[in-house]
Amino acid sequence: MNKNFLMVPSDVDWGDLSDRDIAYSYEYFGGRSNSDMQAEYKKNINERCINLKWMPETVFKYYIYGLKDFIETADFGLFAKTSSVQWLFDIFSEKAKLQEDVIKGVFPDFQDLMELIIDNYQDYELDIESRDDMQKKLKIIKLNLV
Fold it and tell me: For residue range 59-80, what is the model confidence (pLDDT) as tens digits?
């Protein structure tokens, strides 16, 4: 992992808090470590992942590792197991299409996890269609980053 992603983002890193999406993300994540955020992911994985999508680049590059930690730790709340892995693929595939520079530096740290999820899709309570969708997304991510 890039050592620049080890420090909790500063208020300056958050940028324009008059942007409603950024301000809403800041409300939950601002000043908190990835360790602090594990309970928030467990409470409401969908909302926290929506927050991730709207974060400024530097902030996103820090907090996306918290989602990775959450998935790898496997201390899921209700529905979080399936949702967390689906969100991981959705976030990366969307960023690969629209903001490839944002994920280019972090994707190598996530590729093995994404492949593990696909290979063990049943462990995440995913059906075959979801697995196939994730395979397609991973292929798109790789194509957009070369």
Answer: 999 999 999 999 998 777 666 7
For the chain, the domains span 7-145
Q: CA-CA distance, 70 to 87, in Å (whole number)? A: 12
The answer to whether the beta carbons of residues 31 and 8 sit under 8 Å apart is: yes
**DSSP reduced 3-state for 88:** helix
Q: What angle do CA 26, 64, 105 make, to 5 degrees?
A: 120
Cα gap 88→69, rounded to integer Å = 12
Rounded Cα–Cα distance for residues 95 and 102 (Å): 7
Residue (of 50, 61, 47, 51) closest to 9 by Cα position:
61
Residue range 4-35, pLDDT digits in tens: 457 899 999 999 999 999 999 999 999 999 99
Q: Which of the 8 DSSP states describes residue 44?
A: -
| End-to-end CA, the chain | 20
